[in-house]
Design a protein that fits this description.
heterodimer; A: 255 residues; alpha/beta; 33% helix; B: alpha+beta; 6-stranded mixed β-barrel; binds adenosine-5'-diphosphate; binds magnesium ion
Chain lengths: 255, 406
């Protein structure tokens, strides 16, 4: 099933209706999400913002099919995740979703290329030649063509995060979810990563990025703000803000 | 998920963690190596014991006078006088199962030849004695029926005796020696037999007609033993039973009387030694099994630590679309590959260790295909078995929890 082929007429690919998520910890119930309504259309670049503990990661995990809501309806291109088994969710993650994590999560002592190939190893329809080809293309797209055979642990943080981004796009996903992707990087490198996301978004990739830094959010097109498991703000970002934040750095991509 | 991809993933994971993989394998290497070496030593000594016993004549049956108690004083066997030539004749005429039978007398004494002398043992029997006791003629001949009848002063000599009383190069045949005061002409030499299981030199002896020993040396009517060979090793039990019945009849023993003779077979000896060597094998086997289990626990330990250590990796793989069963298979396959590789190295180590034991300690070893296959399979199974638990733990992980793991 390719979700991209099932996009409805509004181009909504992800839709959340009254989503609740409860965690039960030692007899106590933690309400992490309290009725979230959110739609994400194809080609959007969304920043999810909010203080620590406000439920951003919880939401992203649900969006990324790593977790299921306690209540409410989440549809991925019209398919309700409630009806999907664990293995079907795994297949959706494998073929339709890309993840970028704060701590990169690359396999240590493993080349960039092999790291990027990883998701494709779990896809039985992709042979070794195509796997290699797509991984090389993804690394080229993030500007690491020359460093494909470097080991992950011998790269800088920014390079590692680029490898992780290459890994997230290698399966040609419908959407990329990034949870504090720039959280471990210095400002300059963070901006490079965000510009990379922008470039991918311009090429048509839908991206959903969690951050709590406002200047990082300005790279996106839409800002959703969380507080205590509620959405308190959901607005488009004006191009003027973007120009403002990016004025600090005018150079192009750098490794 | 494709098997090829699974193998690629497992091999990459093993290579990524070389030291841990090495430690995991070490347990199996030691386990397999120990099992093979222990079994090689156990099998080797048991085989050499069996070979020695069979060279002593496995279908041999010894009939000896029973040690009798007279008025509470236990008499020594040689002083009991219950077997004589009539018994030999009776058995010869009435037994249907006996292959060959001979009286036996033996005595200690000095051999004197010129100025040299040598303490040895004189054995005696009829012509079949050589067949029954597995002696072979090296040169010369055996005593004739006529010589037996006449109690001729002739003998055959063993190699040790020859070496100790003759100068090198002297042909002993035709020479005259004395056993104590009785002069004997050497008519033949016996082929070397080597040491027996007890480390006794089987060539330190001379052999004469039983009549010669009976009449000229020991001057006694009674026999020290009657030796019989059964038609085959399998017939030993039956033959012994028949002999017992016949002798009880000829000795006119009533049902309440105990046997006044004792039948001993090599089978008993073999099974005694067999059980000793079996015991040794069991002992060595248990040590080997323990080392296997310890090796297996080592694998489990390292696999278990590995799962904990690699929790984030597992979370990542799940986030990238890996299913629980993919993770389970990956970890199982890793355990299997390490066990198989460790098993192969272990076979090499075991064979090498056995060979070293053989070369340095001069112990007999016997490496059987069975022991190699068995220990290899067993170790691989142990590896997989002990890999299973941590692997299933890994497979059951929740991807989010796994990713959050520090
Ligand atoms: N696995 C979990 N078990 C229990 N409570 C959790 C779990 N994950 C998150 N929470 C709680 O849910 C709330 C939202 O967490 P999270 O989504 O991680 O916030 P954010 O990513 O915005 O910092 C927090 O109070 C957090 O403690
Ligand atoms: Mg978070």
């Amino acid at each position: 099933m390719n979700i991209a082929q099932q996009i409805n007429k509004n181009n909504v690919i992800l839709s959340l209706v009254d989503i609740h998520k409860y965690y039960h910890v030692g007899g106590e119930t933690i309400k992490a999400l309290n009725g979230i309504n959110l739609s994400i259309k194809e080609g959007e670049f969304v920043a999810i913002m909010g203080a620590s503990g406000s439920g951003k990661s919880t939401l992203l995990n649900i969006l990324g099919c790593l977790d299921v809501p306690s209540m409410g309806e989440y549809q991925v291109s019209g398919t309700s995740v409630k009806e999907l088994s664990k293995n079907q969710l795994a297949d959706i993650r494998n073929q339709n979703i890309g993840f970028v994590f704060q701590s990169y999560n690359l396999l240590p002592r493993t080349s960039a290329l092999e790291n990027v190939e990883l998701p494709l190893l779990y896809n039985p329809n992709i042979g070794s030649a195509e796997r290699r080809e797509r991984a090389e293309a993804a690394l080229t797209a993030v500007g690491l063509k020359e460093r494909m055979h470097h080991l992950s642990n011998q790269m800088s943080g920014g390079q590692q995060q680029r490898v992780a981004i290459a890994r997230s796009i290698v399966n040609d996903p419908v959407v990329i979810f990034a949870d504090e992707a720039t959280g471990n990087l210095d400002t300059e490198t963070s901006y490079e990563i965000m510009r990379l996301f922008q470039k991918l978004n311009e090429e048509g990739m839908t991206i959903c990025s969690v951050t709590h830094e406002p200047d990082i959010a300005t790279f996106t097109k839409r800002m959703v703000v969380f507080r205590d498991g509620f959405i308190v703000k959901d607005e488009k970002i004006h191009p003027s803000d973007i120009v403002l934040s990016q004025a600090s750095s005018t150079s192009g991509f750098m490794d | 998920m494709k098997l090829l991809n699974l193998i690629l993933i497992a091999i990459a994971a093993i290579r990524r963690n070389k030291f841990r993989s090495f430690l995991t394998m070490l347990g199996i290497v030691i386990g397999v190596g120990a099992v093979i070496a222990m079994l090689a030593i156990g099998n080797g000594s048991s085989a050499s014991i069996r070979a020695t016993i069979s060279s002593m004549g496995t279908n041999l049956i010894n009939i000896m006078p029973a040690s009798q108690s007279q008025g509470g004083v236990r008499q020594s066997r040689s002083s009991s006088q219950t077997l004589d030539l009539e018994d030999v004749e009776y058995l010869q005429n009435n037994s249907t199962l006996i292959n060959a039978i001979s009286p036996e007398l033996d005595s200690n004494g000095q051999i004197v030849y010129g100025s040299s002398n040598w303490p040895t043992q004189i054995y005696s029997g009829n012509q079949d004695y050589l067949l029954i006791k597995k002696y072979e003629i090296e040169s010369g001949r055996v005593y004739s029926e006529k010589e037996i009848k006449n109690a001729a002063k002739v003998c055959l000599v063993g190699k040790t005796v020859i070496e100790n009383i003759f100068d090198e190069g002297v042909d002993p045949i035709g020479e005259s020696i004395r056993f104590e005061i009785i002069p004997l002409i050497i008519i033949g030499t016996l082929r070397e037999k080597g040491d027996n299981t007890f480390g006794q030199d089987q060539d330190d002896m001379i052999l004469a007609p039983y009549t010669t020993v009976q009449k000229r040396i020991m001057r006694q009517q009674y026999l020290r033993a009657i030796v019989v060979s059964a038609k085959s090793v399998d017939a030993i039990e039956e033959t012994s039973a028949e002999i017992e019945t016949l002798l009880r009849t000829s000795h006119r023993l009533t049902d309440s009387d105990e046997d006044d003779f004792e039948i001993r077979t090599q089978e008993e000896l073999i099974s005694n030694f067999g059980s000793i060597s079996d015991m040794m094998l069991v002992l060595l086997g248990s040590i080997a099994a323990i080392s296997l289990v310890v090796g297996g626990i080592g694998i489990m330990n390292i696999m278990y630590v590995s799962v904990t250590e690699r929790t984030r990796e597992i979370g990542l793989r799940m986030a990238m679309g890996g299913k629980g069963r993919d993770i389970l298979r990956q970890f199982l396959l890793e355990a299997m590959l390490l066990s198989i590789l460790g098993g192969i190295i272990g076979v090499g180590v075991g064979v090498l260790a056995s060979t070293i034991v053989e070369a340095v300690l001069n112990w007999p070893i016997l490496i059987t295909l069975n022991s190699v296959v068995l220990s290899f399979l067993f170790c691989t199974l142990i590896g997989v078995f002990f890999g299973w638990y941590p692997a299933s733990k890994a497979a059951a992980l929740n991807p989010i929890e796994a990713l959050r793991h520090e």
